[in-house]
Amino acid sequence: MNLRVKHWIYGIFCLLVAIIAIGPELHAASNTHPEKATVESQVKEKKSNNNNASHMRTPIDWHKSSETIPYPDLSKVKDFWIKVDLKNNRTYLYDGSKIIYTMYSTGGIYKKDPKTGEMKSATPTGTFYAQQERGDSFFNQSLKEGANYYVSWKNHGEYLFHSVPTKADGKYNEEEAAKLGKTQGSHGCIRLSIPDAQWMEQNLPVGTKIEIVG
């Protein structure tokens, strides 16, 4: 065996030793910071939510959809649920942890709770589920107020998603409609723009989880 071949075999041997020695360290390094993957996923989710926000229609127009993109196709959504943020006047459609559509909304007016002294919305908070009661229009004689495109989420017709309110003559109450996405104003229901409310009535599956906060 000549000297060149010996050097070549020795080089290969040294390389194998180095790989065997460093391999476990590389494997350990790849698992040292599992939280990094979580942070990266959160960043991706935040970017996705920000992208969603960029589609919001401005200025707010209660005659039109809240976003300038099509409504989500629920047949392609794996984990659909809804979150209503009363204080921020937004209703979020989710697929798992990802916001897939945002609607301008108006919830119940805030009044001071005589027992606690805290300001409390007329809209119940907690977890509810979409119910079967829905329709194209209604009018509440006692409140002198109605709306179009409603779907119930509590007490089978008492608390609803519906359009901005209508008056006794069926015309929209423009003064109240102007509050959409800006402030609270309802008696407890969740008001939406006309197209958003219509989409809810026609597409919201019975049993959909609805979380209301604020």
What would you say this structure looks like, in words?
With 214 residues, this protein is of the alpha+beta class. It has helices spanning 3-30, 34-53, 174-177, 194-203; strands at 80-85, 90-95, 98-106, 110-112, 119-121, 126-129, 134-140, 145-154, 159-163, 190-192, 209-213. The chain has a 9-stranded mixed sheet with strand order 6-11-1-2-3-10-9-8-7. Strands 4-5 form a two-stranded antiparallel ribbon. A hairpin with a 2-residue loop joins strand 2 and strand 3 (98-106). The longest helix is centred in the N-terminal third of the chain and has 28 residues, at 3-30. It is globular, with a radius of gyration of 28 Å. Mean pLDDT is 85; it is low at 20-39 and 41-46.
SSE blueprint:
Layout: H1 3-30, H2 34-53, E1 80-85, E2 90-95, E3 98-106, E4 110-112, E5 119-121, E6 126-129, E7 134-140, E8 145-154, E9 159-163, H3 174-177, E10 190-192, H4 194-203, E11 209-213
Parallel strand pairs: 1-11, 9-10
Antiparallel strand pairs: 1-2, 2-3, 3-10, 4-5, 6-11, 7-8, 8-9
Pfam families: YkuD
Pathway: Cell wall biogenesis; peptidoglycan biosynthesis
Protein name: Cell surface protein
What are the salient characteristics of this protein?
single chain; cell shape; transferase; 214 residues; two-stranded antiparallel ribbon; 9-stranded mixed beta sheet; 29% helix; alpha+beta; 11 strands; globular
Mean pLDDT figure? 85
Physical arrangement of strands within the biggest beta sheet: 6-11-1-2-3-10-9-8-7
Low-pLDDT ranges? 20-39, 41-46
Helix/strand order, N-terminal first: HHEEEEEEEEEHEHE
- What is the number of helical segments per DSSP (H or I, 4+ residues)? 4
Compute the separation of the termini in Å. 83 Å
**What structural class do you assign from the helix and strand content?**
alpha+beta
The major beta sheet can be summarized as: 9 strands, mixed
Question: How large is the radius of gyration?
Answer: 28 Å
- Strand percentage lies at 25-35%
- Secondary structure tally: strands: 11
Oligomer: single chain
